[in-house]
UniProtKB/TrEMBL annotation, chain A:
Biological process per Gene Ontology, one example term: phosphorelay signal transduction system
Organism domain of life: Bacteria
Protein keywords: Phosphoprotein
Protein name: Response regulator receiver protein
Gene3D superfamilies to which the protein is assigned, alphabetical: 3.40.50.2300
Record-listed 4-aspartylphosphate modification sites: D60
Record field: transmembrane: none
Annotated ranges, domain Response regulatory: 3-127
Pfam families linked to this entry: Response_reg
Organism per entry: Hymenobacter roseosalivarius DSM 11622
Amino acid sequence: MRKILVVDDEADVRLLFEQRFRREIREGIFSFSFTFSGEEALAYLEQEPHYSEVVLILSDINMPGMSGLELLRLIKKDHPIPPPLVMMITAYADAGSYDTAMKLGANDFLSKPLDFATLRQKLLLLNTT
Amino acid sequence: MHCYLPIKALMLLALVCAIRAGMAQPGTSKAVYLDKMPPAGIVLDNGWKFQAGDDEQWARPNINDRNWQPINPTLPPRQLPQVRQAGIGWLRLRFRVGPELQRHALILSIFQYAASEVYLNGQLLRQYGVVSTIPVLVRAYWPNGEPIELPLADEGEQVLAVRVAYWPPLSAFNEFFAPTFFQPRLNGLQQMEQNFKQEAKYKVADMLLFGALLLLSTLHIAFYAYNPNQQANFYFALYTLAEACAFFCTGFLDDVGRHGLRLGMDIVSYASLQIGSVLAVRALYSFFYMRVGRIYYALWIANIFSLLLLMFGQGLSWYPTVGFMLLVTAEQLRITLGALRQAKRAAGIIALGFGIAFVLLLTFATLSALRSEILHQEVLGIPLHTMLTFSAFLSPVLAISLFLACRFALDSRLLMIKLAQVRRLSAQATAQQEEKQQLLAQQNELLEQQVQQRTAALQQTLSNLQATQQQLIQSEKMASLGELTAGIAHEIQNPLNFVNNFAEVGVDLLTELKAGPLLSLADRERKSAEELVDDLSQNLEKITYHGKRADSIVKGMLEHSRASRGERQPTDLNALADEYLRLAYHGLRAKHKDFNATLTTDFDKNLGLVELVPQEIGRVLLNLINNAFYAVQQRQRLGQPGYRPEVWVATKRLTNGQVVVWVKDNGMGIPDVIRQKIFHPFFTTKPPGEGTGLGLSLSYDIITKGHGGTITVRTKPGEYTEFAVSLPVSQEHVQAQTLSYSI
């Protein structure tokens, strides 16, 4: 079972993900953890069992406090081995933030509104590897 | 003026000379016998006896006068000391008249510088002046030879007795002023007539000279008054006035009986003569513009000195005057000759005047010295001496007057010429002035026109500026509106995502519900539950549908805020426009099969490549062309007869480095109220669902912000709409454009 950490300041994201992926969760393919800020995400990852469990981090870029890009930078810096996959999600799908995210080592770049079908494909692809 | 003296004086002088000659004859105590009347008359200067004292008996003819002293009373008083010592005395003359003379009327004339009572044969004939034993009371009188008829006793000896008194003031003066003491003359009628005639001629000559000189004086005073710069006129006027005065005094001298006054007039005549001659010298100085020097002042001193000598110098006769006149003449000669040498203007006239006078006087002097009888001959009834002297006196005066008149005439002619010149010049000046004024007026007009042109240009510029300013404000508004729109869109996007997502998930869940748990229900309950689930599913689908609709609006709004996604690249704008025109047309034809429109393109072959973002400009063109098609479609629906929808697309490269793309249609046109809002976001005239109201707003942003160009619209409601998009050809122009806007 792959654990996926979703970082978004919108609380309803949790409900949406749990409903969208209810079948996968029910079948034990994925398990989701949710934090509502970059700081919270980092704190979560500090806890020993969590870090090793999490294989993918889905993070919004625009958040109050620490931005998604900052979070990306810190994760890539503090946790080099094994490298967690990080996918960035943003409503502002502009070239600037895309370039920055890629430079910081993001594994993928998704734009809002999230196309859950595509996301599911990507996650399932992740699961097989 | 040259050695000139009043005529009368000259004649008197001649008289004295004659008397002296007569005195040479030896006197006798016998009675004087007069048998013939000579042509010149008889001067009774012979046979007189004198007795000092006063006795009335001495008038009687028969008293004894043998012891009386012989005397010639016609001598000057100075030569008769016995008379002066006596103060008063008696003269007696015994004479006989021959038979020839007795037949004629005899007339006695007395000339005297004394007071006298004349008795003939004891009978008082005349009393001249006041004879008194007291010298102070004596009043001398000049009878001027008035005719006295002699009532002779029939025969024998006649006795002329004269009670005579000496006039004391005479002793102070030069004897020249009193050439005789007592001079009786006997004349016939013929002689009297002759004498009167002569007297009249002298007087006429004097008066003529006086009048002429006075006239000249007045004339030249007038000249001087008119032109005070010509001082010569002034001095000449004074000179002629003095001469006139001299001739006046001389002319009326013999008409004055009282000797005091007569003596005064006599002296005045000489003084005037001399002063006049000095003034003549002064006038000459002025004529020839010579400096007044020592000689002139010396002449004045000599003048005073010679006058004093003339009046009081004893035995000098008139030589002081003669000497002085010689002096003055010499100076006048010097001045004139000097002027002649320097060839001064009209000096010849004066020289000629002097020359004539000199020659005439020389002739006169020569004749009087050698052949004086010739002088008395008459030409045309005028004695030669009068003619000579008259002309001699007048010629220099006339010459000078002529000279001055000449100068005056010359000056005035010169003035006339100068006046003409001045008039011509002033006319020229006036003409030039007018010309200048005209030129000035023309220039003024030109300037006015230029000012008006400039003002108009400025007005144009001002209105352009105002329009630009309006545009700037508008674009500023639009920019902020765009940003606001983007912000709003972004904020709406997230909740909208949730709405959509949850709606979708809801549908999934309901599908799951229908497929799973719902099947376990009893049929009847399951049926009604399925109906409810279907309704819910339908609602959720509606939510999704409208959510998507909102999403597409939000996406459109977000395009505003999105930075340029494409790269600028040199693009064939003609090809781009053509491509999008076809795309739009076919897109529309796909939806509305019955739609048809004429497409006209007019592409500038020299347009060249333009640096732009093809996707964005394509989007703008598509927008505009779609709008054009929409407009003609709308108008077509009105069913106007003969209406033919048409859309034009044209391009052109301007000289200022811009390219323009026109998109024109003959559709509905845009009303004024709407035209103001067409570039505002969300403004649309299309029904809901057909347009977002963001097309033109986005186009505006792309053209102005993205490419530094402009987009404008011209329209006439019901006829046409024309959009013009102008773009700078290259990036440099964009920067320049942006810069110029920022200023």
